[in-house]
Amino acid sequence: MKTTINTYFKIALTINVLIITAVLYIQYFLNIKPCSVCFLERYPYYLSIVIILIYFINKKFEKYLLFSLILISCISFLLALYHSGLELGFIKDSTLCKASTADYLNKDTILKNLENNTLPSCKNVSFKFVGLSLASYNILSSLSFLILYCKVFLWIKKKR
Q1: What is the pLDDT along the chain (160 residues), one digit of tens a residue?
Q2: Domain spanning 5-159: which CATH class is it, in words?
Q3: Eight-class DSSP state of 102
Q4: Which residues pair with 129 in a beta bridge?
Q5: Helix (H, G, I), strand (E, B) or coil at 35
Q6: What CA–CA distance (Å, rounded) separates 13 from 47?
Q7: What are the helix (H) ranges across the chain?
């Protein structure tokens, strides 16, 4: 059975949505407070979801959308490497890690944070699943997406 580009994008969309759902569940239902880098690591997933939805609306720019997804996956991979480096002690805390999460949160949460002005450190792992931190999983998922999008991009290029 021949797999189509639509199938790859449906799989990618589903996995992106599941990843975002999982991290929001961990944050809001398990009450695990994310660090500032954790918030930044979500943006590539949000952006990927939007770009894949744009693909389904208008396939006219599929090469450009795929190139965008490849670039986003690279950025996501680098952010995840950076975060893992912080967790493992290979990288020292930077201003990125010490940034306030106020830019990423709603008004009520900002007021709560003003009362309790402690942000989780980016180097402390606050949640592990099967022995790996979420930053480690982000490395794996970003790299998987990067490979998938490159494969589809090359497939389209070869097809034409």
Answers
A1: 356 888 999 999 999 999 999 999 988 998 888 888 888 999 999 999 999 999 999 888 888 999 999 999 999 999 999 888 887 777 776 655 655 444 445 556 555 554 554 566 666 667 667 777 788 889 999 999 999 999 888 888 777 6
A2: mainly alpha
A3: G
A4: 132
A5: coil
A6: 11
A7: 5-28, 36-57, 62-88, 95-98, 107-115, 134-159
The CA distance from 63 to 59, in Å, is 9
Strand ranges for 43-137 from DSSP E: 128-129, 132-133
Closest CA to 56 of 11, 3, 10, 14: 10
Q: Is 16 left (phi over 0), alpha (psi -120 to 50) or beta?
A: alpha
Tokens at 118, concatenated: 């402690």
pTM above threshold 0.90? no
Tell which residue, 53, 41, 127, has the closest CA to residue 81: 41
Question: Under a CB-based contact definition with an 8 Å cutoff, are residues 26 and 111 in contact?
Answer: no
For 112-133, b/e burial (b = at least 16 CB within 10 A) is: ebeeeeebbebbebeeeeeeeb
Backbone angles phi, psi at 51, to 5 degrees: -65, -40
| Tokens describing residue 28 | 């809001």
